[in-house]
Amino acid sequence: MSAAKLQLLRHAMERYAPLSQSTWKQVQQSCSERKLAKGEILVQIGAPSQHLYFVCQGLLRSYTLSEDGKEYNKKFFPENTFPGSIRALLTGGPSDFALQALEASVVLAIDHPAYRRLLEKAEDLKWYHIQYLETNWVLDKEPIEVGLALSDSSARYQAFVEKHASILHRIPLHHIASAIGVTPTQLSRIRKL
Questions:
Q1: Apex CA 168: angle with CA 38 and CA 35, to 5°?
Q2: pLDDT along the chain (193 residues), means of 10
């Protein structure tokens, strides 16, 4: 695992809160590198997971399946983001969604049990964790949920474009359609408006 990839992780974490050298050293020790081919599944639906992930390179998506096998995209994870099923990690249960590489990707796998043990004793890591959760699970997620419930498909598409402008060209259109809750044909019509 390269020092450059670890520095990417540290920089991403310290956007939320600074970490002491001692804490950072312990975080590093819980990391391993994983390379993914385009299309490779990192986490299967229904499988437990013992890792948080950090995207160093590439693009991942999280998705779930309906009872009839239809895919529904939940979120996209480009470089410098943290994909994973937090619920599955916290409960020890199966993941409700899969993580799949949309491009050849490199991720750092952070051992969750080791991370939790460190979280219990490192105040700076606790502060990082709080800031991360507030930003990504409250401030970012709430408007998305309200938008899905109250917006029409054109408004959802525009919001998606604004939120993902820097990676839009990397996401296949059928995945965008799934993410905003329309068919690819409906998306084609929306894009022509």
A1: 25
A2: 93 97 97 98 93 97 92 94 89 93 98 96 96 81 61 86 91 92 90 84
